[in-house]
Amino acid sequence: MIERRHRETPTTVATLDDLAPLADYSFMDTLNCDPEGKANGADHAPRQVFSGHYVPVKPTPIENPEYVAHGKHLFHELGFADSMAQSDDFVRMFSGDLSRVPEPLRNVGWACGYALSIYGTEFYQQCPFQTGNGYGDGRAISVLEAVINGQRWEMQLKGAGRTPYCRGADGRAVLRSSVREFLAQEHMHALGVPTSRSLSLYVSKTEQVRRPWYSEGSRSMDPDILISEPVAISTRVAPSFIRVGQLELFSRRARKQEHPQAMEELEKIVLHLIDREYGDAIDQSLATAEKVVLLAREFRSRLTSLVANWIRVGYCQGNFNSDNCAAGGFTLDYGPFGFCDVFDPQYQPWTGGGHHFAFLNQPAAAERNFHSFCSAVRPLLAGHPDCLRQLEEIQRDFPKVMQAQMEQMWAAKLGLDAFDTVLFRELATLMMQTPVDYTLFFRELSSLPDEIEPLKKSFYKGATYAADPEGIDKRWSAWLTKWQSLTQSRSPEELSSQMKLVNPKYSLREWFVVPAYQQAAAGNYALLRELQDVMTQPYAEQSEDVEKKYYRLKPPELFEVGGWSHYSCSS
Ligand SMILES: Nc1ncnc2c1ncn2[C@@H]1O[C@H](COP(=O)(O)OP(=O)(O)OP(=O)(O)O)[C@@H](O)[C@H]1O
Ligand SMILES: [Mg+2]
């Protein structure tokens, strides 16, 4: 759990003409296109898509696009020149206008269907046709696969207009949600947590859409007004965007024998997933059934590690359905997410999300998604009893592996060689009763305080604390003494610096992001840039100025305010 070093390659891509030859659309030869799809991609009305892995769709460009931000670290990793993000042809392409891209870039993108399971239960109601054939990328359109420095990346526009899966909605994303997703992806990567990455963000200077939102200072749970917001297109990048829900779609069709190619389509999408996400871990020459067993084992390892990392950094995904669970084991879909302030096992910023997706329930939610994954790939093991048995075992042991990851993570946060149940239980109780700011507490602890005074910087001092401050302080002192005795064998310098690579100093709290997207909507990107800077070095001490602004408790007046502490709509 250390901060990623950014592998930078020399700039080789300075223009779209340099990028064009790196494009590789070979997936179109191995995966199936929707037979009813239109080659020109003029396919924007909601309809059922009965088969095929992808539908050709032309993005709908936003009007009068303006540059907002680009992912500088990703640009450098890819060898892209920073100046390209503001060049006319790049802006045009990544704000949705593919009409003039240089060959061999194509002027039609693609969208994919997927199914939905919520907490392990299959859903069809969200599909306008009640069949599952109308659900999928409703506003996400991929425009390119490219092999850059030996690595393959898919680039996907979000908010690029309607697709056959739009369900009657506008296919747009507003600047607010795009800024949130853009910053969070960069922050997550810098935290060392696997994630889709931010490439670029453009806003329209003229096009707006209406969305339900909160009036200023509103304490309502649900939005109480409709506001007009500028539309934006952000581009995210990953080796693939295959979701657990996507495997489920093809598996459901195979199970119900919906068409003659259904089983073959399931096998193809699973092999494609292995190729894009697990190429290093799974030997290509194996038979499909053996590959599937290895895939399940590797995905379990990635998913459990991912969720332990989310909890390490205080992240709640909020809507951890199977369609928001990337089969490559990284964070996907920053919708109603949040980074917590107060430590609260039930923290869930999304008012529609329910407790099953709350902060410390994420391991259980991940298990449900893993069950959905196992059910989806199981048909490929028919006739292979040994592989079926192995898959069952892998599925059955999920909680054990998850628990081991969690204990390892808590031990690392506390600078311990091994997890100590008693110490942790007392800490969790104290953190809830005081309560503490999660980020501040662990960061202060990482400086190895002699007494509890420095830790008090993280105290919110709620009713339980106020009723008996001396009593609680005493328990904190006793806890600290016990913790000190367990860490004594390590050199203090080494312990502290190791803990500071596990416990970030800065986290992307919602009340930092709100003013940044508000300013951005008024055309001022200064705060957004500052946040981009601060939050891409979350483990660094940074300047006194930065510390004063971003290393502090959440102001009391911002608790329980709609849009700042909770939200119902994320798009
Ligand atoms: N404005 C919109 N127009 C069309 N489809 C939409 C819109 N907003 C959301 N959707 C679709 O509704 C579904 C549920 O939305 P959700 O918030 O999980 O996804 P999202 O944030 O749009 O997408 P992703 O999971 O791709 O990050 C998704 O399939 C999404 O494509
Ligand atoms: Mg989603």
Overview of this protein structure:
The protein is an alpha+beta fold. The chain has four domains: 16-243, no CATH class; 255-409, no CATH class; 416-500, no CATH class; 510-558, no CATH class. Helices cover 38% and strands 13% of the residues. It contains 19 helices and twelve strands. It has helices at residues 16-19, 27-30, 72-78, 88-94, 175-190, 244-255, 262-277, 288-313, 362-377, 385-396, 398-413, 421-433, 438-445, 463-467, 469-487, 492-500, 510-521, 526-535, 544-550; strands spanning 55-57, 65-70, 109-111, 116-118, 121-123, 140-148, 151-158, 173-174, 197-213, 225-238, 315-316, 338-339. Strands 2, 6, 7, 8, 9 and 10 form a six-stranded antiparallel beta sheet that branches. The chain has a two-stranded antiparallel ribbon with strand order 1-3. A hairpin with a 2-residue loop joins strand 6 (140-148) and strand 7. The radius of gyration is 24 Å and the shape is globular. The two termini are 31 Å apart. Mean pLDDT is 96; it is low at 1-6.
- Global geometry: globular
Largest sheet: 6 strands, antiparallel
- First-last Cα distance: 31 Å
As for the number of domains, it is 4
Q: Treating each run of at least 4 consecutive H or I residues as one helix, how many helices?
A: 19
Please give the number of β-strands: 12
* Assembly state: single chain
The helix-and-strand class reads alpha+beta
* Rg result: 24 Å
Helix content: 25-40%
What is the arithmetic mean of pLDDT? 96
Which segments are poorly predicted (pLDDT under 50) over 5 or more consecutive residues? 1-6
Ligand set: adenosine-5'-triphosphate, magnesium ion
What percentage of amino acids are in beta strands? 5-15%
GO molecular function, one term: magnesium ion binding
Protein name: Protein nucleotidyltransferase YdiU
Pfam family, one: SelO
Family: Belongs to the SELO family.
